[in-house]
Amino acid sequence: MSFRTTASVDYVEDVSPGRGALPPRARYASSDAKSLSLNGSWRFRLSATADAEDDSFAGEGYDAGGWAEVTVPGHWVLQGDGAFGSPIYTNHLYPFPVDPPHVPTENPTGDHLRVFDLPDDWPAQDDGGAVLRFDGVESCARVWLNGTELGEFKGSRLPHEFAVGQLLKPAGNVLAVRVHQWSAGSYLEDQDQWWLPGIFRDVTLLHRPAGSAGDFFVHASYDHTTGEGTLRVDSDVDGRVSVPGLDIDVATGEQVTVAVDPWSAETPKLYDGELVTAGERVPLRIGFRTVALEDGLIKVNGKAILFKGVNRHEWHPEQGRALDVETMREDVLLMKRHNLNAVRTSHYPPHPAFLDLCDEYGLWVIDECDLETHGFTEQGWRDNPVDDDRWTPALLDRAARMVERDKNHPSVVLWSLGNEAGTGRGLTAMAEWIHGRDSSRLVHYEGDWNCRDTDVYSRMYASHEEVERIGRGLDGGAGKRRELPFIQCEYGHAMGNGPGGIADYQRIFEAHDRLQGGFIWEWIDHGIKHPELGYAYGGDFGEELHDGNFVCDGLIFPDRTPSPGLVEYKKVIEPVRIEGDGADGTVRVTNAYDFGDLSHLEFEFSYQVDGLPTGAHTLAVPPLAPGESAEVKLPAAAPDGNGDDVQWTVRALLAEDTAWGPKGHEVAWGQETVSPRTAVTVAASQRPVPGERLITLGPATFDARSGRPTTICGLDVTGLRLDVWRATTDNDDGASWQDDTRYGVLWRKLGLHRMQHRLDAVELADDALTVRARVAPAAAEVGLRTVYRWTSDGTRLKLTVSVTPEGHWTVPLPRLGVRFGLPADAAQEVLYFGGGGEAYPDTRAASMLGQWLPGIDALHTPYVRPQENGARADVRWAELGGLRIEGDPEFWFSARRWTNEQLDTARHLTDLTPGDTLWINLDHGQHGIGSQSCGPGPLPQYFLTAEPTEFSFVFSTTE
């Protein structure tokens, strides 16, 4: 009798960071030493448990011909059409029992096998050694080369290297990697994201010649008082450092001071240099800048900076966290073109190439450690690893691997200990180590409200009111905290429609020096491309525990299309303020950059009448220094609008091509009304004419029983009535842990999604058709007494709606207006004069007035989870299907091929099927959006309060 034995897998539940890996060191993209990418197709075998198979596959001669194949970098659950398991999404709940350091026996384990030959020009074995580098593996890996075990490691988003020089052979090298989805390390990686096992970053073989560079630290500071930079490169291996552009050629460890142009996110000046040791030449890209905590402020190069930032998870809808450089570049270019100046790498160090791009294009970076233990909040942080000394070596290992890898990036200005891990001795040890290793940067951690370990007071989702108090120094707290700068490391939760209220936050940030900005949560929706659902989110893969579409909370959609939220944010944080009262013919221009003047911009000016520009002019704006303003005279007098709206618009454009944007790219704009339109009037000169079933009034017919219009201006009209419901947004619904201000929940509880319409009277008079009704939810005593008054001058039709609330209304209304249907083929596009792009009361900063001609389908915003969307603000008039609609006052316009109720029940875009009716909403008001999916709701000034209201619309033909 014989038994198959398996190697011990005790290492999976070991709290240590692993064994066998080399000490962490600086990462550089290239050198003159040979390297070999091992990315590509690997043989793959999936087992249900960590010990299901022995390790014989790691030996030479093993026949893996029957195995499947996966692509590395990649996640196995996103390959194989479901044959290799499924993704799991949780926000903070661990998807396994919380019993640290233990993990389930059912532990998906992927054996990876790659056979490779060395290139013909690979140096001989006696010419130095070689290193095998893994840039990212989730969550625990054990490695063999040619049958020899190298070791194992944890720390999914961190690099690990192994010395392999003596094991290599010219051909037939067998690299074997066993990857476990769950390990003790999983307790430290409870970030709000998909759990995705696999080798998801690069695998590279690096030749290390004798005398090659080891670790090195580029110290490049800048003295803003003298304009000089000081360079010193500390290196484990002696050598020389040259920077030809600065005439520098010095030994490592030697300090030199020269005149330089500094690096900043606005002017990311990099000097090309080289570190030369006896065995290797390493290119350097050096940015001179100094980060300091001075006068209670974060200062770079002597100036306080204002973060206009975003949190960025790595994501691709098909490859998950396995991003290529061009995708990363696309992210950075989108950020720069939308006026962002900062990134927090939530919640782990990114692929190193991303930081190269931040250096090159210019973004401030908070580099965050691969650490989150959020799930322990479910048990009051009991057994939290960051307060357990047994875990401290793993925490320090993670801190060191982040700092050592990324320390030579000028874009990195703060180190972050991690995210939502409570507090504890392990975090203090990390902070002490980082402060000791790198005094040239500050340390951040949001969970440390008393700022024991950090250099900045950081919060997430603090309300506007609290941020204002903090800015005024009225927030209380420990003595040290009161002396520190404040940032919102997360705010403006960009889930679905929103975020709302970010313009109000920005005004507060700019009003108080202590407030140094914040980072919107977050950059991209983590939707997974799905053949039936469009994009999948939590629960779509049958997860036992999940957090639904909370993973889709980005400023860009999964395909990287900017959302209305990103367009709004671009406007809110624009680095040039363009304002004016419209009456005196002057514009006030303010430079809101931290460092640069306005010489790189040109300004274009035009008047517009009824939304159409009358001709562009150049506006001469001086090259204002940061913080400076100037009153600039408009070069032409305003035209006579003859009763139409007249506005001026000034746009700040790139004067020349830049690395991130083309000449003419719009950086900022301002717009003011010079003279408003004359309100449309309709003389009530036509008498309604009753018939057997229809009433005729001017260009319309009405059902004689209900008083509802059946045709207007020759178009069939159905279902015109008061509408107060909208398909609730993620921000309307709020988060499960919030209190009773979740208005989406309260609206449903009251029954606003199922309002009943009672007809009280249809009245004909000499000058009007009047329909009286009461609109109210079942089982409630509140209601809206509604009067529809129709008048006509024979060619035009006017509807005046009067609404009077009855009962005790304790909630605001979602919307207030009228809704009606037109035949589906009535129009394929709409011409309107109003705000361009989606907008709501607290998301309308980017809504530029003009005439617009979108297709009907373009009016729909494709949020991954369907919800209220697409409203156009400040609409004066709209034309579609030969029908012209004018508002008094301006109105919100929406058009969609399904009802609000159908939109409300859809869970994916594929649930929305166009019907035979085009539904139009003409709204007098909308409730604000806020960001209550994780933050505060709308500010009170954006509430749509139930109060007596009257508004009108005029219908006519476009001919």
Automatic annotation (TrEMBL):
Domain of life, source organism: Bacteria
Keywords: Glycosidase, Hydrolase
GO cellular component, one term: beta-galactosidase complex
Enzyme class: hydrolase
Catalytic activity from the UniProt record: Hydrolysis of terminal non-reducing beta-D-galactose residues in beta-D-galactosides
Pfam family, one: Glyco_hydro_2_N
BP-aspect Gene Ontology terms: lactose catabolic process
A single MF term (Gene Ontology): beta-galactosidase activity
UniProt-listed Enzyme Commission number(s): 3.2.1.23
Record domain Beta galactosidase small chain/: where: 696-956
Family: Belongs to the glycosyl hydrolase 2 family.
Protein name: Beta-galactosidase
Organism annotation: Streptomyces sp. NBC_00180
